[in-house]
Amino acid sequence: MQYQSFLIKYAEIGTKGKNRYVFEDALVHDIRKKLERAEGDFKVYRERGRIYVTVKSENYDYEETVDALQHVFGIVSICPMIQMDSTHDYKVLSDKVISYFKEVYGDRKLTFKVNTRRADKEFPMQSNEVDAELGHDILEAFPNTSVDVHNPEVVIRVEIRQFINIYSEIIPGVGGMPLGTNGKAMLLLSGGIDSPVAGYMIARRGAVLEATYFHAPPYTSERAKQKVVDLANEVALYSGPIALHVVNFTDIQLKIYEKCPHEELTIIMRRYMMRIAEAIAEKRDCIALITGESIGQVASQTMQSLVCTNEVCKLPVYRPVIAFDKQQIVEVSQKIGTYETSIEPFEDCCTIFVAKHPVTKPIPEKIRKSEQIVYDEMLPMVEKAVNEAELIWCAGKGR
Ligand code: ATP
Ligand code: MG
Fold first, then answer.
1. Whose CA is nearest to atom 18 of ligand 1?
2. Which part of the chain is CATH 3.30.2130.30?
3. Where do you find CATH 3.40.50.620 in the chain?
């Protein structure tokens, strides 16, 4: 079946009262943007609380179109459909439904029901009459079918509005809120599995993302940096372009390594990461930080460690995977397409300077005291790291 139209369903934004148009406009805007990736020429428009995508060109790529729509936050489902001009003639409607059914299901043995909604009250039959008549016509035309009103395999939906929409396939969207309907947040993006997932989850709530990556050349390779750029590009397929700030962290790490107690290296290093990310966030008008931390995953993510990393930030820190098990995070990363890149074997700056026995229950006063040893020396180094961060725009790869 070569569909020429899609009905786009969205849930949450339908409930935003007067702001509803802002959300719908943002959704339409993002749909148009994402469809630039798919071959074909499309019209995206709103009509009475509905969003439609219709294909204007002769040819288009169905798979690419559905894939593009499955990268739009705010879409709950994508329904490929047949749209016909309004008619008040039941026979014309019935013929269309029969030809639709034939093309999509052929002579398959299946159970079905018809579900009609009539917004156009001029249509001479009531919805339940249309259901019954169409059910009857389908049964007659396709002897392998039977009606099951409670648990049908296929629901044929007919919407009689300004146009008549006929559809039965429902492809899931990613849900969430349209991009740009919330503030901007700074993601601490490493090359791991967790932080891309964390960024995706917050972007899915309508936030715009920027990202900071701490790079420690020559201890971390160019390839490790490229992996983070790749990840940012993969998340950007959903979130839109990401400004990635690459911070040279080598001198800071070496200084901590040289002067601070080794069992506290990770926690002190993480405090500096948070400070630097926050300074860049403020320069870039981000109003929150995002990390991929999860309680108890490693020594630096026990609740006590999180107290220590959290206390150096003024901005709220969003940790959307805080209560996820690793397996759950892996599942999301596989679903969104970052997993394969995340497991590429390139070292991260944290893995090089790790102590054999890091503290798991750091005491904030003690950490502050250890940090005092380097604090003054560190101030200009932090400033330099912030000011000299390299900016790489990651706009998503693919078409
Ligand atoms: P990931 O969480 O991405 O899988 P990870 O499991 O190695 O990385 P940690 O090293 O414990 O996690 O770091 C916890 C969080 O700190 C990461 O989720 C990320 O938000 C941030 N982070 C860690 N290393 C870096 C880095 N080199 N650059 C930017 N952020 C980092
Ligand atoms: Mg992690």
1. 292
2. 5-172
3. 184-394
Question: Buried b vs exposed e over 276-310: b needs ≥16 C-beta within 10 Å?
Answer: bbbbbbeeeebebbbbbbbeebebbbbeebbebbb
Choose one of 188, 202, 220, 339 to mutate for the ligand 1 pocket test, by most ligand atoms within 8 angstroms of C-beta: 188
User: Which residue owns the Cα nearest ligand 1 atom 3?
Assistant: 192
The DSSP H or E segment spanning 8 is strand 5-9
Residue 91 CB contacts under 8 Å (≥ 6 apart), including other chains:
none
Domain covering 5-172, topology: VC0802-like (3.30.2130)
pLDDT range class, residue 399, cuts 50, 70, 90? very low
Domain 184-394 has CATH 3.40.50.620: yes
348 CB within 6 A, ligand 1:
yes
Rounded distance between C-alpha atoms, residue 399 and residue 386, angstroms: 33
Cis peptide before 358 (omega within 30 of 0): no
- Which residues have a beta carbon within 5 Å of ligand 2, which is an ion? 194
3-61 pLDDT tens trace: 999 999 998 665 667 778 889 999 999 999 999 999 999 999 998 778 999 999 989 99
Ligand 1 pocket: which of 194, 300, 325 to mutate (most atoms within 8 A of CB): 194
